[in-house]
Structures are given as structure tokens and as C-alpha cells.
Design brief:
The complex is a heterodimer of chains A (164) and B (809). Chain A has 164 residues and is an alpha+beta fold. Chain A contains five helices and five strands, in the order ββαβββαααα. Chain B has three domains: 177 residues, 2-Layer Sandwich (Aldehyde Oxidoreductase, domain 4); 187 residues, Alpha-Beta Complex (Aldehyde Oxidoreductase, domain 3), CATH 3.90.1170; 333 residues, Aldehyde oxidase/xanthine dehydrogenase, molybdopterin binding domain (Aldehyde Oxidoreductase, domain 4, 2-Layer Sandwich), CATH 3.30.365. Chain B has 20 helices and 33 strands. The chains are: A alpha+beta (164), B alpha+beta (809). Chains A and B meet through α1, α2, α3, α4 and α5 of A and α2, α5 and α18 of B. Bound molecules: FE2/S2 (inorganic) cluster (2 copies). One FE2/S2 (inorganic) cluster sits at the interface of chains A and B.
Chain lengths: 164, 809
């Protein structure tokens, strides 16, 4: 065991303080200290994307990062994307288009997709497949995930247009 | 109640019953990150256990020193075989009638084997503790080849030899050698030999169906909590068969079964990985008893790939005979099955090679013989059914390759050869040469539909042109047309011939209708992504006339759910789905009596209509199921008990036999070995369709797992028994980038013996997909003389094939 330190993070809009060994991976801090269990663990080696969160505006696999590296950063997890009364368009679209089965990849998938749609608001199928290639799903074969993301993009764009 | 404005169609639609693409009720929690998987469980004072694992594939253990580990801050206990032996828990029974070490008992038999269990305050402390355990090994000769194992003097399992040094009997009869586990024979040996000896044409081929792994995104794990005050053990875990786990835990621990509660929370995919019992479960239970605290054990990905439940590893040798014009006369199959260090397959007791004897496939083959030899090697145990019913993928791969090889031998089109030999519609129920009775099928119709859909003749013409262009140097890409017609056997199964550890493979459903006309139903199965909470409610909605949205489905808690054998082998719909329909019919029978009483007519004078009982000939007189439910709880009806509940335990009379016709069109770059799936057409016939959206999703997913297995995924070992594919870096899981879009289609041939005619679908695309992708690769090179090359067809292997065929010259 190494010395424990205090770290200040901003998670889903709230500032939290945690005490942890610097070697602790961010995914464990989120899941075990903060009870944010939406992000999952599928590999711990940055391959599967189940642990994907957004950090300072970028998609990050939270098993790739120590809690010490997250000091002072803005972190958004699936829990911060929508609420039961106001789901994110991606959450709606995944339900509508059967974009999930066991649900284990889903929080990481949706969190990544939310960034993808900011990077490319109107992506082609190829751009979606390429942009989502860091997130593995063992159940769906991706076809309905792609469909869900396309549908959410259309929804978001329509809402933007209506607002203008 | 007056609702004339509502048509009968409206009433049917509002139930969201069978046949509609009802949206999934599971999705609200999963899309919001509110699933509850085993690693999400957090209990007061919970400890974390993890394994010291063997770096060697075969070694004697001369000493284990845990003293330094016990000094590591946060470490509370270290268990070794010596601690478990007094409890009789250092070995445990496997589902295949063998036994397996829980913790290394004097030696290790595969790399990654569990040697000691470190229990600590959290996973970091456990990892530190593992580092500090000192184990002394003495290396032994390693055998990773089953053929070598059967020749070798090296005794892998000392418990397989008797006092006199000769091999002792195994669970399935005499052993031929000390590293031999069983021989399983099926069919007519001599007649098959005779038919083949006298045949006009014989095609012979050997193929290796490589070792791979189900690799669900969530690994295996559990939380054990022994409540010493009340004497109750609660065990949460990634269990595909929670009741079976409860019984096994009771049998091996001696804790009475009523004092054990097993709970499968949400499961992040299973695919066969989570059927068996693993050392982690046993050690967590013991550790919780020892420490008096809850203990969690969660595999990491490397543990998962290296130790729990590999699949396949079948060396198959076939001979198929036919007349000159292509009528198949006989089939012979021999399998050498590599089971690793322990035989831990999850097969029904009487079937040590699962349902490999479905290997006559979709064809009317009059004579056949199958022989399987199981062998020990220094590899991880398992042999589970990875997204298939017991060994059905192996069987279907075998026959679909043998058909292609026979087509080459006959110089015949492979589609034509299939059509000549398909079992005809009028032959069902069809008794196959290796014993099974296929329930229903219409293969010719499905096949013709598939061939038309892809314009098969057009594809062959294009391929012909492509070959000419290739030979003329105009292109470096070949075109492969992969064909497969598969017949699965799922829904194990009739208790008379299917059991696991003596537990008959029936399944169950219990329904409680609430007074206000909503309901809860509990089943003996457990969803791992299949959407049971959605589809079983649909079955019930159609059976009992209450909206699916008013029916809660609950599974996975052995304290509340009726006993069942769980979810694998596509058995949920064929068995538990049938139990659900039957329990629903019991509800309906009682509802009929209540309705008749309320309408003041005889029981026989009312009939069920969608969501109500109506008086025959007077449709304006009716009682809705909602009204009947209320009456069941508030009216004193002479001769009828209050309440509206039912339970059904369903023992299926037969298996179900889903089938399908698949076509894969693949472009292959001869110089790089890169494959590109241009088209994949999948026609499935799973009998009655409960939820088309979910069926389609299952097919997409199963095909993707098939693509993985056929084109790259493997558990590979080097000669020292080191696992070469222990991380997702080396173990191929396709991403969105590698996966094509699939075209799905269907025919409907209901199962005649299933109450709603459903056959199960979750595994069909995997079973049919693997040979289809593989046949596409083979077909691309057929014109250049390729007969057989083993999977996985990764880029390098395809490049090598092209090279060996002289296509780079
Ligand atoms: S757990 Fe982080 S990428 Fe797999
Ligand atoms: S839904 Fe199961 S891993 Fe994606």
C-alpha cells in the first residue's frame, strides 16, 4: 500500500473530494468511492471502452487513467447525461432502436457517442463505425447501435434547427 | 364495461403480445447506467478475494509460503488447498462428471490455474498480497497436443491411474490411456463402414475447430455473504443457472439448501461462459465463512480468457459417401476432443460430447457413425457451449464443410448438392441416423428463398468472370460465396435423457395475478441480454389477456423463483417459454370458471377472446380478464378457491430444431489476405416468432460472434503451454469497424410439440454463421484447388493459403 492523498474532482457537475492511493485507477474511484456504477469494467487494458467517460470535453477510458491524473478535471459519466424525466436523445434512441442487449457496454457506448455527435454532428455510417471503434459490444453486432446513433443525430439536429 | 369504439384489433394491439416488436422494458435502467451487475454490489465490510495463479502449464508445487502475504497491509487471509482439504473442498465436481481442483493440490495442470486465494480489504491490497505469496514450482513436461497426450508416458492426472498403474475407469466408461477421458459412440459402426467401402464416391477430410472463448463483456464474479447469526448464505453471481449453483453449493458445502440463497443480478452477457461452477465461487464462500464478512471475487479479463470456460478445440475427421449423382449414402465422424486439465464441459450427463450427434445436419443421410475421444492436456478446462447448444457449432461446422468437400469431389455446385440431400418437408418428424427426431422443417422452401434473395446464379456468374479476370491479371481480388444450411438442436431437454448432475432439465414459471389485473411471473431461467422481461411478458399477454406492460417478469433469485435449470443452449424459450404458456393456460382455466359464474352461465358456454371471456353466441356479454382478476380476490365463488395463481413445471417431450439458410459474399485480397464482407444474408426459421425486433438483434449479435470465431478469434498456446491470447490485444473481438450490416429474413415452421410453436433463436446465427464465413473463404479459393484450411481465417492465414496455392507467383 502507498500513501493515500486527497484529490478534488468535478463529477457530473459536482465537486467531490476523495482520498485514494495515487495508483488507483479512475474507474475504481468512480465506481467504488463515488458509487457511480454506470461506467463498467470489461478489460482494464483500454481495449473495450466499457469504462468510457468524458473528461474536459474528450472521451476517455477511465481504466487508463489514475485518479491522481484526474485532479481538478471535469468528468461526465452516463449518470450525468440525462435524467429519468429528461433522457438524452441517445438514451431514447438506443431504447427505440434496440441498440443494446445485456446493457454492459451501453453506458460507455452512449457516453462515447455523445462526444462523437459533438465532434461530427451529422456523421455518415462510416464515420460512426470508425468513431465508435474504441467501444466493444459483444451482444448487438453494432448494426442497431449505428442505427440508434444516426437517429439521435437526426433528433439533435432537428432540435437545434427548431431552436434557431 | 362498454367499449364498442375499441375494435378487436385495438384490443389485440394493446396487449403487446406475441408477434409484435415490443420495446424492451430492461432498457430504461441500462441506458441510464442503473443496471445492477455483480460488481456493482457493495455490502458493509465487504472484502475482496483474488487468486495467486500458476505461471506454469504443468508443475509440481513443492512449497507455498503465505507468511509474507499475511504481513501485507489490508490482507486478512490466504487460503490454499491445505486449508480447504479438511473441509473436502480442495476439489469440486465438474458438470461433466469429472472433478476439478479448487486450489492446486500438489500440482498445477494449466497456466493460470488457481493456487491460493488472497482475501483483503480491497482489490489493491489483494493484488499486493498476491505478489507476496511465495510458491515453489518444479516444472514438469508440458503436453498441449491431444494426440501427443494419448501417446505420452507423462501422467497428467494421477487420479486416472489405478494402484497397478493401469488407467482407471472414468465417468463415461473405461479409459484407453491414462490421459484419455472417455470414448463416446453413436450410430451404426459396421454398416457405415460397409456403405463407405462400397460407395461410388467418398470424400475424406480432417479439420480442426480451434479453441476459443465466449468472452462476454462482463467477466465472471460473485459476492458471498455468510450470515452467521441466521445461518444463511447469500451468493450473488454471474450465474446462467442459479438454481443449479444453489444445489451444487449445498452438495459440496453441506449447507442445507434452504439456507442458501443464490441471486443472479443483471448479467453482462454469458454465451456459455457463466454456466459452470468455478473455484472463485467456492473460495469466496469459504472466505466469507472464515472471515465472517462478505467476500467479492471478480475475474479480470486475463483470468477470464485464460481460465474460465474455453469453447471448441475439436479435431474432426470425416468421411462422407455418395452416389455419382450426389445422393449421400453414409457419414463417418471421429473427434479428438481436447478438454484441458479437467473435463469441465457443461453437457447433459449422458452426452459427454454434447449433441455432436446432430452432425448429419439438414441432410437425409441413411447411415452414420460418430466416435468422440476426450483427452486431457495442459490447457485450461472448459468445453462450454459458446453461443450454441452443446457442441452444435462443432457438428454444424463439420457437416457443412463435409458437404463442400463432397461437392468438390463430385465437381458439383454446393447449393445443388444440398438441395439433392435436404430432408424433405414430408419426412418430418424425421428420425436421423444418429438418433434424434427432428420436429419440423421445410428446408427446400427456406433454401430457395435464400438463393433467390441473393441472386445465386448471378453471383456464380460474377465469380466465374472474376476468376477469369484474376487469371488474366486484371484483379487481385477473389470472390467467395459461402453457403450454409444449418439445423440446430436446442431446448434441452426432455428429463428422460437430459440432466446435469442428476438435475432434470425441465423449466418453470409461476404466475401471480394481482387483484387490479396486473401480474408478476417468475421463471427458472435468467436473462443475460436476451430480453426475457420483455418477451416472456408477451407470451403471457397473449395467453392470459392482460397487457404485457402490466406484467412484471422476475428471474434469478432462488428464494422466490421456481426451480429451473437456467439459460443456455437456447433453452429459455423452448422450455421456460413453454412453462410460461402452460402456467398461463392454468390461469385461463380458472378464469373461465370465474367468468362463467359472474355471467351466470355454464363453464362451457364461455370462450376466451383476446382479453376476456365472452358468452358463446352473445359477444356483448363478457367479463374482461381485469374484471375476472378482481373477482378472484373479492367474491366468494362456490367451489372455487380465492386468488388467481398458477405454476407450471414443463418437461419438453422433445428438443426443438431451428434451422436457417445463410449466404456470405466475401471479397478477398490475395496479396494482403484482407477480407471484406460484401453481403451477408441470414434466413432463420425459429418457429413462432415472439418479438421480431429482439430476434433480429439476436441474429446480428450471433453473426458477429460467428465472424469473430471464423475470422480471427482464438485461444492459442505455445509449446510450453503459455497462453498467447490472454488480453483483448490478441484475442479478437470485432469492433463496429470490422462488422458488416446483415440482411435478415425468415420463414415460419412452428414446432409441433411446443405449446406456442416457438423453437429458440439466440444461438442459430452463431451456429450457422461460423461455417458460412468459413465456407466463403474456402469457396474463393476452390477454383485454385483449396479443399480445407483451418480457422481462424485471419489475414495472415489467408495470405498463407494464397501463397501455398501459388497465387503470389
Ligand atoms: S475497462 Fe477500460 S477500456 Fe475496458
Ligand atoms: S449490449 Fe452486451 S456488450 Fe453491448
Amino acid at each position: 500500500m502507498t500513501q493515500k492523498n486527497q484529490y478534488k474532482l468535478n463529477v457530473n457537475g459536482q465537486t467531490v473530494e476523495v482520498t485514494a492511493e495515487p495508483r488507483e485507477l479512475l474507474i475504481y474511484t468512480l465506481r467504488e468511492q463515488l458509487n457511480i456504477t454506470g461506467p463498467h469494467i470489461g478489460c482494464e487494458t483500454s481495449h473495450c471502452g466499457a469504462c468510457t467517460v468524458t473528461i474536459d470535453g474528450k472521451s476517455v477510458k477511465s481504466c487508463t487513467m489514475f485518479v491522481a491524473q484526474a485532479e481538478g478535471k471535469e468528468i461526465t459519466t452516463i449518470e450525468g447525461l440525462g435524467s429519468p424525466d429528461a433522457l438524452h436523445p441517445l438514451q431514447e434512441a438506443f431504447k427505440e432502436h434496440h441498440g443494446l442487449q445485456c446493457g454492459y457496454c451501453t453506458p460507455g457506448m452512449i457516453t462515447r457517442a455523445s462526444k462523437l455527435l459533438e465532434e461530427i454532428p451529422n456523421p455518415t455510417e462510416e464515420e460512426i463505425r470508425f468513431g465508435m471503434a474504441g467501444n466493444i459490444c459483444r451482444c448487438t453486432g453494432y448494426q442497431n447501435i449505428v442505427k440508434s446513433i444516426k437517429a439521435a443525430a437526426a433528433e439533435i439536429n432537428a432540435a437545434k434547427e427548431a431552436a434557431q | 364495461m362498454k367499449d364498442e369504439a375499441v375494435t378487436r384489433e385495438d384490443r389485440v394491439a394493446s396487449l403487446k403480445g406475441m408477434g409484435c416488436s415490443r420495446k424492451r422494458v430492461e432498457d430504461a435502467r441500462f441506458t441510464q447506467g442503473k443496471g445492477n451487475y455483480v460488481d456493482d454490489i457493495k455490502l458493509d465490510g465487504m472484502l475482496f478475494g483474488d487468486f495467486v495463479r500458476s505461471p506454469y502449464a504443468h508443475a509440481k508445487i513443492t512449497n507455498i509460503d503465505t507468511s509474507a502475504a499475511m504481513e501485507v497491509p489490508g490482507v486478512l487471509a490466504v487460503l490454499t488447498a491445505a486449508d480447504l482439504a479438511p473441509l473436502g473442498l480442495h476439489w469440486m465436481p465438474t458438470l461433466a462428471g469429472d472433478k476439478q481442483m479448487v486450489l492446486a493440490d500438489g500440482k498445477v495442470l494449466f497456466q493460470g490455474q488457481e493456487v491460493a486465494f488472497v482475501v483483503a480489504e480491497d482489490r489493491y491490497a489483494a493484488a499486493d498480497g498476491i505478489e507476496a505469496v511465495e510458491v515453489e514450482y518444479e516444472e514438469l513436461p508440458v503436453i498441449v497436443d491431444p494426440f501427443e497426450a494419448l501417446q505420452s508416458d507423462v501422467i497428467l492426472r494421477p487420479d486416472t491411474v489405478g494402484e497397478d498403474g493401469s488407467p482407471s475407469d472414468g465417468a463415461h466408461g473405461p479409459r484407453k490411456h491414462h490421459n484419455h477421458i472417455f470414448t463416446w459412440e453413436c450410430g451404426d459402426k459396421d454398416p457405415t463402414e460397409q456403405v463407405i467401402a462400397n460407395a461410388e464416391v467418398v470424400a475424406e477430410e480432417s479439420m480442426y475447430y480451434h479453441r476459443t472463448h465466449p468472452c462476454p463483456l462482463e467477466t465472471c464474479g460473485c459476492v458471498a455473504s455468510m450470515d452467521k447469526v441466521n445461518g444463511k448464505l447469500t451468493l450473488w453471481g454471474t450465474f446462467q443457472a442459479p438454481h443449479a449453483i444453489r444445489t451444487v453449493v449445498s452438495l459440496i458445502s453441506g449447507i442445507e439448501e434452504h439456507n442458501i440463497r443464490v441471486i443472479s443480478p443483471d448479467i453482462g452477457g454469458g454465451f456459455g461462459n457463466k454456466v459452470g461452477a468455478y473455484p472463485g465461487y467456492v473460495c469466496s464462500v469459504v472466505a466469507s465463512i472464515v472471515t465472517g464478512k462478505p467476500v467479492k471475487w471478480i475475474e479480470d479479463r486475463m483470468d477470464n480468457l485464460m481460465t474460465t470456460a474455453f469453447a471448441r478445440d475439436y479435431w474432426m475427421k470425416g468421411r462422407i459417401s455418395a452416389t455419382k449423382d450426389g445422393k449421400i449414402t453414409g457419414l463417418h465422424c471421429h473427434v479428438t476432443a481436447d478438454h484441458g486439465g479437467f473435463d469441465a464441459c457443461a453437457d447433459p450427463t449422458k452426452f459427454p460430447a454434447g449433441f455432436m450427434n446432430i452432425c448429419t445436419g439438414s441432410y437425409d443421410i441413411p447411415t452414420a457413425f460418430l466416435e468422440v475421444d476426450g483427452v486431457y492436456t495442459n490447457k485450461a478446462p472448459g468445453g462450454v457451449s459458446y453461443r450454441c447448444s452443446f457442441r452444435v457449432t462443432e457438428a454444424v461446422y463439420f457437416i457443412e464443410r463435409m458437404i463442400e468437400v463432397l461437392a468438390i469431389e463430385l465437381d458439383m455446385d454446393a447449393s445443388e448438392l444440398r438441395k439433392i440431400n435436404f430432408i424433405k418437408k414430408e419426412q418430418f418428424p424425421y428420425k436421423a441416423a444418429l438418433g434424434w427426431e427432428y420436429d419440423s422443417g421445410d428446408y427446400h422452401t427456406a433454401w430457395d428463398k435464400a438463393m433467390n434473395a441473393v441472386d445465386y446464379d448471378g453471383l456464380r456468374a460474377e465469380q466465374k468472370q472474376r476468376i477469369e479476370d484474376f487469371k488474366a491479371g486484371k484483379t487481385r481480388k477473389l470472390l467467395g460465396i459461402g453457403l450454409t444450411h444449418f439445423t440446430e438442436i436446442v431446448g434441452a431437454g426432455p428429463v428422460k435423457n437430459c440432466d446435469i448432475l442428476g438435475l432434470g432439465m425441465f423449466d418453470s414459471c409461476e404466475i401471480r395475478i394481482h387483484p387490479t389485473g396486473s401480474a408478476i411471473a417468475r421463471l427458472g431461467t435468467i436473462s443475460q441480454g436476451q430480453g426475457h422481461a420483455t418477451t416472456f411478458a408477451q407470451i403471457l399477454a397473449s395467453e392470459i389477456g392482460l397487457p404485457a406492460d402490466s406484467i412484471t417478469i422476475e428471474e434469478g433469485d432462488t428464494d422466490t423463483a421456481p426451480y429451473g435449470l437456467g439459460t443456455y443452449g437456447s433453452r429459455s424459450t423452448p422450455v421456460a417459454g413453454a412453462a410460461t404458456a402452460m402456467a398461463g393456460r392454468k390461469i385461463r382455466a380458472k378464469a373461465q370458471m370465474i367468468a362463467a359464474y359472474l355471467l351466470e352461465v355454464h363453464d362451457d358456454d364461455v370462450e376466451f377472446d383476446v382479453d376476456r371471456f365472452v358468452v358463446k353466441g352473445a359477444p356483448e356479454k363478457f367479463k374482461t380478464m381485469k374484471e375476472i382478476a378482481f373477482a378472484a380476490y373479492n367474491q366468494a365463488i362456490p367451489g372455487i378457491e380465492p386468488g388467481l395463481e398458477a405454476v407450471s413445471y414443463y418437461d419438453p417431450p422433445n428438443m426443438t430444431y431451428p434451422f436457417g439458410a445463410y449466404v456470405c459474399v466475401m471479397e478477398i485480397d490475395v496479396d494482403t489476405g484482407v477480407t471484406d464482407i460484401r453481403q451477408f444474408y441470414a434466413l432463420d426459421d425459429c418457429g413462432t416468432r415472439i418479438n421480431p425486433m429482439i430476434i433480429e438483434g439476436q441474429i446480428h449479435g450471433g453473426l458477429t460472434e460467428a465472424l469473430a470465431v471464423a475470422l480471427g478469434q482464438e485461444i492459442a498456446y505455445d509449446d510450453m503451454g503459455n497462453v498467447k491470447t490472454g488480453t483483448l490485444m490478441d484475442f479478437f473481438l470485432p469492433t463496429a469497424w470490422e462488422v458488416p450490416n446483415y440482411e435478415t429474413d425468415h420463414t415460419v415452421t412452428p414446432s409441433p410439440h411446443h405449446p406456442i410453436g416457438a423453437k429458440g433463436v439466440g444461438e442459430s446465427p452463431h451456429v450457422g454463421g461460423v461455417p458460412c464465413f468459413s465456407n466463403a473463404v474456402h469457396d474463393a479459393f476452390r477454383a485454385f484447388g483449396l479443399r480445407q484450411t483451418n480457422m481462424p481465417h485471419d489475414h495472415w492465414r489467408i495470405w498463407r493459403t494464397a501463397n501455398e496455392l501459388g497465387l503470389h507467383d
